[in-house]
Amino acid sequence: MEVRHLQTFRAVLREGSFHTAARTLRLAQPTVTLHVQELEAEFGLPLFDRRGSRRRLTPAGEIVAERALPILDALDALARSLAELRDGSAGFLRIGAIEPAASRRVTPLLARLRRRRPGLRVQLDVGGTAGVSRAVADGDVDLGLCSAPPVELGLVFEPLYEEEMVLLVPLGHRLASRGALVAQDLDHEPLLLTEQGCAYRRAVESALQEHGVAPLWALESGSTATLREAVRHNLGIAVLPRWAALPPPPGTVVRRLSDVSLALPVGLVTRSGGAPPPPALAALVADLRRGVTRRPPSRARG
């Protein structure tokens, strides 16, 4: 069994076809087919179901994926660690993060890390929790910084901090003049929220449902700037991350709920049983953990 054959197997699994895997690996498609056939001949069992347009694993293929892919991850980490040792102050980081974690937390730490490692190269992918978690699970990035990932991905979630959510209220609204608000104040109130599937949206809906609150979803948008403007035009009350609501735009005020904790846990997402991180990644993880409340890693919960 050759490592390159397992690498080809992994590419076909990720891409779903021999053709796309060949393009990703920059190999001729017959070469990809040959690598898989040689593995199948060695194991004496087919690894992929050839029926249909997308290549799916057979039971034998599932076993190979379960046992062999962690070995490839370890070999990749070993090669990168040795390359960093050979290059001295270099390294390569592959990170996925949600906003504002990417811009407000990761980027400043990368600047500090790069002063210590001038040759450092970084791949920083910014997206939602679902996309970041999937990238970690697929091995496209080595580390995620986001909210709790879907439980079915089997990832490890280590909470680091909580992103506070606040209410942005039009200045002329009846709730604007009240200092302390409670969840019931939002019952049947038109609310402006981030889009469906957003981790912030799920946190808000869950917290309000626990208090029996049934607000009216007046507007949803993936743009916090749009939600801020919607509040200015009296379309409703926006529930936003604190960083997106402050400073409040003219004609609006920020309010908090006294009986509900509107907060989104954000933390590190990694693969279970993964290889030890290369030195540059380990240094970044240590910087992320430093200065925030430490909690024991836990399996992601839905």
Describe this structure in words.
This protein has 302 residues and is of the alpha/beta class. It folds into 3 domains: 3-69, Arc Repressor Mutant, subunit A (Orthogonal Bundle), CATH 1.10.10.10; 80-160 and 265-299, Periplasmic binding protein-like II (D-Maltodextrin-Binding Protein, domain 2, 3-Layer(aba) Sandwich); 163-263, D-Maltodextrin-Binding Protein, domain 2 (3-Layer(aba) Sandwich). The protein has helices at 3-15, 18-25, 29-43, 59-87, 101-116, 129-138, 199-210, 224-232, 242-245, 279-289; strands at 48-49, 56-57, 90-97, 119-126, 143-146, 155-170, 190-193, 216-220, 237-241, 252-255, 263-271, 298-299. Helix 2 packs across helix 3 (29-43) and helix 5 (101-116) crosses helix 10 (279-289). Residues 293-302 have low confidence and may be disordered.
Helix content: 40-55%
Mean pLDDT: 86
Q: How would you characterize the largest beta sheet?
A: 10 strands, mixed
* Poorly predicted sequence stretches spanning 5 or more consecutive residues: 293-302
Just name the CATH architecture of the largest domain: 3-Layer(aba) Sandwich
Helical region count?
10
Oligomer: single chain
CATH class of the largest domain, named Alpha Beta
Summed up, the domain count is 3
Instruction: Decide which structural class fits the backbone.
Output: alpha/beta
State the CATH superfamily name of the largest domain: Periplasmic binding protein-like II
Order of helices and strands: HHHEEHEHEHEEEHEHEHEEHE
Could you please say which CATH topology of the largest domain applies here? D-Maltodextrin-Binding Protein, domain 2
Distance from first to last alpha carbon: 39 Å
